[in-house]
Amino acid sequence: MFRKSILFITISFSVQLLLAQGFNSTSGRNHPELNWQVAETEHFLIMYPERIAGIEGEAAAIAEHTYESLSKNLEVTFDQKIRIYLSDEDEVNNGFAVPFSRPYTNIWVNLNDYSEIWTGQEKWLRKVIAHELAHIFHFEAVKSPLGLLQYTFANPLPGFWTEGLAQYETEKWDSQRGDRWLRKAIFDDDLNYSSGQSIEDGRLLYALGNSQLRYFAEQYGDTSLANLLQHRKKLFGLIRYHDFGSAFEETVDGGYSGFYDRWQKHVNVYYNTVASQMERTDSLHADEFSFPGQFYFDAAVSPDDSLLAVLSLTSMSRPVRRLYVTSTDSSRQNTLIGEGAINSDLNWLDPQRLLYSRMVRGKHSSLINDVFLYDLEKEKETRLTVNRKAKFPAAGSSQNQIGYIVNEGGTGNLFVMNLETRKEEKLTDYSGDVQLLWPLWIEQENAWLVHRFTDAGDRNLVLIDPKTRSEKTIDPEQVDNRKAILSPDGSKIAYISLRDEVPNVFIYDFESGVESRFTNLFTGGEVFGWVADFDSTGEEHLVIGASETRTQDKLHFVSAGREVYQPELNLPQTYASWRLQSPTNEIPSDIKPNPDLITDRYSYNAFQNLTHVASFGFPYYSDANDWGIFATSNWTEPLAKHTISGGGWLSIPDPLDKSYGALSYINNQLYPTLTFSVYQIPENGQYYGEEFLFEEYTGADIAINWPLDVFSSSYQYSSWSARFRHYSTDPMGENRFTSNPNLATPQNATVTDLQLSWQIKKQRPWKNNSYHPLDGTGLRLSVKGSEKILGSDTRTLTSDIHGYTVQPFLGLNRIFLEVRFQSQWGNNLPQNYIGFSRYDNVDISLPNDIPLQLFGDNERIRGYREFVTGKQVAFGSIEYRIPFIPSLQTQILGFVRLGGVSISLFSDSGIVWDARSESGATGTIQRWGAGAELKNEISIAGLSISHAFGVAQPAQQLFTDTKSDMYYRVQAVVPF
User: Fold this and answer.
1) Which of 83, 230, 259, 467 has a beta carbon 3.0–4.6 Å from 104's, enabling a disulfide?
2) For residue range 874-923, what is the model confidence (pLDDT) as tens digits?
3) What values do phi and psi take at 467, rounded to 5?
4) Measuring CA to CA, which residue among 107, 132, 104, 84 is closest to residue 23?
5) What's the predicted TM-score (pTM) here?
6) Among 309, 334, 344, 341, which Cα is nearest to 323's?
7) Cβ–Cβ contacts within 10 Å for residue 882, how many?
8) 124 DSSP assignment
9) From residue 68, how far is each of 214, 584, 670 by CA, in Å?
10) CA atoms within 13 A on the CB side of 288
């Protein structure tokens, strides 16, 4: 059993690790339509789809400049060329690098709205390629002959330091990548970026690392940074490896702990000095208003000031993005109108219609943005654009016109649409690396106002005349003004500016052409609306989002006539200089394309790029007759087109009968995922009668998994799958099952079968989904048949309809309902029965791509301990689930954690037709049991599962002296 457990853990870990690579790890889709090409330079292999040819010249220049700077700064070179993968298949503002023995980076390109997330003059390709290559240089600097195994006992790449180093080496210190997040954390006295209590945790991790690297370089120099990365310890005095803590101890007095204390005091002096010269949120002299949710992504006031649309996150424990419409009167009535991947670009078309964009599935199942309209009267959402990569919708010059920005291969252009005819008109004709954001129609100027980010890196607010197409810049300075809101009379705009390194609000008067400051908040403020008469006083108010804590956002209705405190800011230069610290060899911000750097071009070969991920082995001992070596090896290709994983054990005393293994190959070259497996392995572990049965399977599988866009929606996934299998089964220890004449003995056989399945499942994220989900629905239909072909001994057909739902009831209490109906025909093997198990089989939610069926899935009626088989089975269960203890706060051996506990009152019932039980009963057998159960979350090396202790009785014998069924089981709280 020990070997089987090790195999299960290894397969689960390996498959999840391998599936986390490639662009499809984010999008969940393959893209066989892409024809990949390679451009080779002195130090890089640049891979890109043929349809975006031309980008390789830009990438080559950036990559080679980066290589030159980083190799000097970190004293690192490479013996092999670094692979860079560029893809425009999804609108994902991200990239990632992997620390494998042959590292690579995957980067999404041709984006328009990345400039909303970041600031500064660097364009996306320059910023992201340099950043991800800095990670790869960091990986190389701390690499060990142990490969990924060094992470099991050392900490070579702490997340904050890894991200900080990449930012220090390739970027400037600015607002979005550091200052606004760090200063709030300092002011809030909360520097814990792994608290799980703030949506800003991830941003703080980057900011804290960025700040510490600059402070470290200022205090100790870039040479000390290179020395720190080169520090090595020796395992058993032989194998060199890098550990962050040990390296700091040798490089800096007092180690990292002493360094951290000095850094924290330093930044505290700086930020608190700055805070003393700026405003606090109480200076707004406005009431704080709480709207639904803990954190606010966006808000918009309706044209008649009666409603406020708020896009918020429910909570960190319940990270569901929801869109509410709230009345601004004293009732504060909230209406939920949408949820899911809604973007922060809310705008009202009129008092009853709201505009926004969503990320949806587009052509070839790509993740793209399209514009939607919600009608409050009709309670209906309508998709206005299809496959347009469109965002930032806004009301236009007439009642039925809207404007929005379309991403055309990385170039932003302004379009308008007539809602009656659905015809589009293109108002701008930019080309190249130009992005547009946040269009706003200004009636007084008869022009559209947009935030424009030029290919030269200039950010400005620009007025565009829709008739003459002439342009007028209203903020010629580089102050990064963004997202304007129109005043009620249309003569002014309020907008956010990042000139203070936090967002603050400014007002521009179109008549005078004069800008004035509206807020001077130390932790920043954002404007979401401008209300004509909020509190019946006739005075205008601005809706300002501002908070001094990382754990709760606040909205304030602030008088438009407020006076702003704005003294001359006197920065403490001794404590501020770290912000300007730069590496010795800086990467230029603007790097011109240079196709001449490309030395060769050719088509991409996926197999040639197969990359080793991890291989390891260790001895095992089962008994004197069975001991040997367990080993596994795992390989993947950076586009995830090919993935290979193998594992097993070699028994030294009995290599023929007690050695087992499995080899799995996953192919993602087509739209569906194809998995090919060959094996000789103990599989299908299940309780059969009173004993636990393992069968030795020797055979091969071909599995297909096809995700279905037609059923896609927020937090919902659907797929069709098929599995063709040919195998021989040899029940292990079948002599244990011969004593009961009512229990058929498991049989040896050769089986050729085909299983077809369709399933749909919806479940919103929630921190306790592993043991107490707050919602969820699922339906799975499957049919499996075997035929006497290829030497098969069976001809069978089994159908299975399985569904469940989780419904709210009284606070966080929930009602869980499950139903299942199975039918079976033909000469099925006894061990492949349908019916009721005597004991609970193990049931753990695993990735679909794990090729082995390790556990049986027959139901059990709790309260009964009798094995029943039959030809048709109906099963139903109802549970009333009550959260009890948030966490047991217990750790065992450092990697086993006991989490929360819930109480469940339940009732199971079922009927088996054409049945036979192990007691000899036949015919139609009915069961009805009831009881109570304690469910607990247990986490083993990061894998969270649910286990339970319970007591049950037959329902008709409840509260009698009949002996209770006390049990323990490991079973997922939703069936699939």
Assistant:
1) 83
2) 999 999 999 999 988 888 877 788 999 999 999 999 999 999 999 999 99
3) -90, -50
4) 107
5) 0.94
6) 309
7) 16
8) H
9) 20, 12, 38
10) 10
